[in-house]
Amino acid sequence: MRFVVVTVFYGVLWTTVPAAQGDDPDWPCIQRKVPELSFGQIWNGPELAPNAADWAKDTDVAQLVMELAARRIPLAEAEHRIEDFSAMLAPEERYTQLSKLMQGLFDHMNRERSQVMSGIGRYAHAQREIAAALRQDASEVDKLRGQANANANEIAVRDEQLILKTRIFQERVQSLTFVCEVPTLIEQRLYALAKAISQTWEKR
Question: Confidence band (pLDDT; 50, 70, 90) for 204?
Fold first, then answer.
């Protein structure tokens, strides 16, 4: 019975190793890998102010960028904060400050997205190394089992270890499936925030 269990886990191991997508062997996600977004993909509003790139030097804008980018804040609330921020600005400030806010959100969230994708690649690379080690362990257990003078207790211990390691590996595979969604979630949120800024801009 124990042999059957290990064999099943061994088969599952082979079928749950993340497969690389595209040209990058360390990219396991179904989603196509796009390391960085282009500003034109996200923003279709007016041309930003020349000093928009200085957004990080503006304490109020920088703080708002961090708040709006945080996914723990519901999108509807984030959109209201954009409206409130715009409403507090003097007419002569609105163009510059909304430009900084848009540029800040793009810079921050695009960088966050790239960092997540790099982390996914490292995670997937580690998974392949773990899978290779597990296959080696399983092969060694099979060889041990085939020996005429094999120690039954040793085989039982190594079977249990292999089963535990394989379960942990499968849990990591499931976690990777979830993490693969994060870059898309960041991109979707950035697009929604950009749209909210554009709509607020048009109202004023």
Answer: low
Tell me if residue 123 falls in helix, strand or coil: helix
Distance CA 4, CA 95 (A): 69
The token duo for 95 is 């163009």
pLDDT digits (tens, 9 = 90+) for 134-143: 898 888 888 8
pLDDT value of position 15: 44
Q: CA 111, 119, 66: angle at the middle one, nearest 5?
A: 35
Dihedral of alpha carbons 89, 92, 97, 99, sign: positive
Where do we find the tokens 């930003």?
Answer: 48
- Kindly provide the b/e burial profile for residues 108-129, where b requires at least 16 CB atoms within 10 angstroms of the residue's own CB: bbbebbbebbeebbebbeebee
Spatial CB neighbours of 113, under 8 Å, sequence gap ≥ 6: 36, 37, 183, 186, 187, 190
Contacting residues for 193 by C-beta, under 8 A, at least 6 apart: 68, 75, 78, 79, 82, 105
Polymer length in residues for the chain = 204
Between residues 99 and 123, which one has the greater pLDDT? 99
What is the SS3 assignment for 93-111? HHHHHHHHHHHHHHHHHHH
pTM: 0.78
DSSP state of 19: P
